[in-house]
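Structure Section — protein described below
Tokens — whole-number codes for backbone shape
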Amino acid sequence: MPEKPGPDREATDERILSAIQSSFAPAVGTTEVAERIGVARQTADKHLRELSENGLVNTKTIGQVRIWWLSDEGRRVLDNQY
């Protein structure tokens, strides 16, 4: 029996926040985050939107591209983990 699809264990909040923090640019696109952590773009987008709702990242749409950057709270979360 095939396994049911479930949450992507690669796309943790910590991995996504770290991918944004380690970028050379102050803000990153969804595709870049997905590539950095090795998940589908749709998976990254879903997690990024949840992180935005929780106040850990900020977002803005410029043209057809949505960019993301760490909020002050997101930086605090990463600082407390390391």
DSSP finds four helices and three strands in the chain.
